[in-house]
Structures are given as structure tokens and as C-alpha cells.
Amino acid sequence: GVCAVGLNHVDTETAKAKGIQVFNAPGMNANAVAELTLAKMLEMSRHTIPANHDVKVNKSWDKYKFVGRELRGKTLGILGFGRIGRRVGELGRAFKMNIVAYDPFLKPEDFEKEGATGMGVDELLKVSDYVTIHVPLTAETKNLFNAKSISEMKNDAVVLNMGRGGIVNEKDMYEALKAGKIGGYASDVMENELAGGGLTEGAGFDSPLFECDNFIVSPHIGAQTVDASRDIAELIIAKVKEALKLG
């Protein structure tokens, strides 16, 4: 039992060949990830992280350094309109945002039911003020955000990655941020987050992105709420009992 959605770190083919059941917990962390997405949108929009640093570390009180912008009236582009994407759209609508979305498995009416407009990736990137990623890492989505696709976005657009490291080409994103070709990048994942024991105590790593003031990151905490942990645990325990016929 995997207490998450992604199974990309499990050799499912070998497990299947050996008769080992593998199951995950889809949907149980959807709200937690969606709320983190909105938190990062607000942090990027209102510069709360550098403002906090300026007050607490620099002992400065200068409100004129941190003029932000509101989410209201902005266009939110959602890549991947599953459980998480739909919840992000719902929260975005509460902020009076215009919602556009891409999902190759949905029909136009599926988007309309959720108050969104379905469109292709290229068009979505061009019209969005914020683009949030909620798709798995596959051969098709790897390096989806690269120098070319970033150049097609608005210069002040913000990219949010709550999906997987590797969907955003971090070298290209670094160069775009430094050159002012994009407004910001907020991520909960890094492409090398497991390098050198990323899940072990005291593990660390570095990235050129850390130099960028308009980049914020958290250590893959999307599902790390007591609420999601409880829901995931209950589902996994139920599946284990079912697999072992303990009903």
C-alpha cells in the first residue's frame, strides 16, 4: 500500500508478475495539495516570504517595497483537471479568477460543469496569469516547461508546480527567471529531490534556482496535513484488510 497517489517509484510490472497487489490512495490528498497551491499563489502575489524576511531578519519596516497584485480577475490555467485540479479551480473561482484548464481525457462539457474553459496547452500558456501543474511525470510531460514554452507565456506569469520534478526544466526556468522572461516559479517538488537520500534525516541538496528571489519552494509537503494523513491511512488500512480478506 502506497500512502500517496504516485506509483512511479514502484516497479509495478515486477509486482504484478509476482502476484503482489499494489494500491495507492487517490484523491485523499486533493484538498491538501489544492490549498497549498493557493497558498503559494498568494505568497507569490503578495511577496509575503521576502516581506517576512525583511522584517524579521533585516529589521526593516518598509511596506512600499512589497507592492503586489490581487488574484481577482486574473486567469488561472490548470494543467490536469482531475481531483486536485478541479479543487484548485473551485478555490480559484472563490477568488473571482477566470479558470481555464487542459486535460486530454475530458470533454468540453466536463470543463463547463466545473466553471472552467477547456483548451490546449499552447493556448492555455498564452492566456494565463498563473499556471498550475497537476499532471503526472510521463514521457509526454517531462520538460513540458522549457525555454520554448516559457517564452510563449506572459512576462509576469507565475508557474506553480505541485506535480512532479522534471515536468519543469529547471535550467531553462532559472535562465527565464534571471532574464525576467517570467514572473515567478513556486514549487513543491524538485527534479533531484531524492538525490543523496532526499527522504533521509539531514539530507540536503542545492540548485541554481535558490539564487532567484522570485522562486519559492517547499520540500514536497503537498499532502502533509493531519487531515490528509488521517484520510489516507483509513483508506490504505481498508484496502490492506480487503487484500488480506480480513473485512
Can you put this structure into words, describing what you see?
The protein is built from 9 helices and 7 strands; from the N terminus they run αααβαβαβαβαβαββα. The protein has 247 residues and is α/β, with parallel strands linked by helices. 36% of the residues lie in helices and 11% in strands. Strands 3-2-1-4-5-6-7 form a 7-stranded parallel sheet, sandwiched between helices.
Considering the chains and any ligands shown, give keywords for the structure.
7-stranded parallel β-sheet, 7 strands, alpha/beta, 247 residues, 36% helix, 9 helices
Helix-strand blueprint:
Layout: H1 12-17, H2 30-46, H3 48-56, E1 75-79, H4 83-94, E2 98-102, H5 108-113, E3 117-118, H6 121-127, E4 130-133, H7 147-151, E5 158-161, H8 170-179, E6 184-187, E7 215-217, H9 226-243
Parallel strand pairs: 1-2, 1-4, 2-3, 4-5, 5-6, 6-7
% residues in beta strands? 5-15%
Task: Give a quick account of the main beta sheet: strands, pairing sense, barrel closure.
Answer: 7 strands, parallel
Radius of gyration: 19 Å
The helix fraction, in percent, is 25-40%
Content-based structural category: alpha/beta
The H/E string reads HHHEHEHEHEHEHEEH
Low-pLDDT runs: none
What sort of overall outline do the alpha carbons produce when their principal axes are compared?
Answer: globular
Report the strand count: 7
- Placed side by side, the strands forming the largest sheet appear as 3-2-1-4-5-6-7
